[in-house]
Design brief:
Length: 186
């Protein structure tokens, strides 16, 4: 079962760092969330998989697949699929490459998804939403229908608004406020 407080504690212990950082978005920040320190931990990843599957089940109708931009979304996708599998839930996964592999089929999207499938994009940490928006662009180019985005942590720095402006919803297991940090006021 998903335990929000336990996940929060793991993130505090393993992923949340303070100092001066430059984020993938190019923004400067006084803290950094290294999501892989949680998603590459057995208990942390189990909680992530359970939490995201719980959010998906709350919709009443599961998507055909979950996945996102490699490499951050890879363990998250695997966790959601593993938890779904242990519960007998039929769910597929996919990975979106930053660049086509340059050989074979030159695909940007790996996995058993096809045009018309309804999917949810997963992400470890959302700041501006840039990584997931790139994944969404690739998916839509392939005719795949994106129903929304689920993140482990929303830094509350414009990502939600970026998704909303393009017609997508962002849900998250936690927000930066859960760690007692107020998002910057731009």
């Amino acid at each position: 079962m998903y335990n929000k407080e336990e996940l929060k504690q793991i993130i505090l212990e393993r992923s949340l760092k303070f100092g001066d950082f430059i984020l993938a978005s190019g923004k400067k920040a006084k803290y950094y969330l290294d999501g892989k320190q949680t998603t590459l931990d057995a208990r942390g990843l189990t909680l992530v998989g359970e939490g995201i599957l719980e959010l998906l089940e709350a919709d009443g109708k599961l998507p055909n697949a979950v996945g996102g931009m490699s490499i951050g979304a890879d363990p998250i996708t695997a966790a959601v699929l593993t938890v779904a599998g242990t519960r007998g839930i039929d769910l597929k996964g996919f990975l979106v490459r930053k660049e086509s592999k340059g050989h074979g089929t030159n695909k940007f999207i790996e996995g058993p998804v096809k045009a018309g499938d309804k999917v949810v994009v997963v992400e470890d940490v959302v700041t501006t939403g840039g990584s997931s928006l790139k994944a969404i662009e690739r998916l839509e180019e392939a005719g795949i229908v994106v129903e929304g985005v689920i993140a482990i942590v929303d830094r509350m720095e414009g990502g939600r608004e970026a998704f909303t402006s393009r017609g997508y919803t962002l849900r998250s297991l936690l927000t930066i406020k859960d760690f007692g940090i107020d998002p910057p006021q731009d």
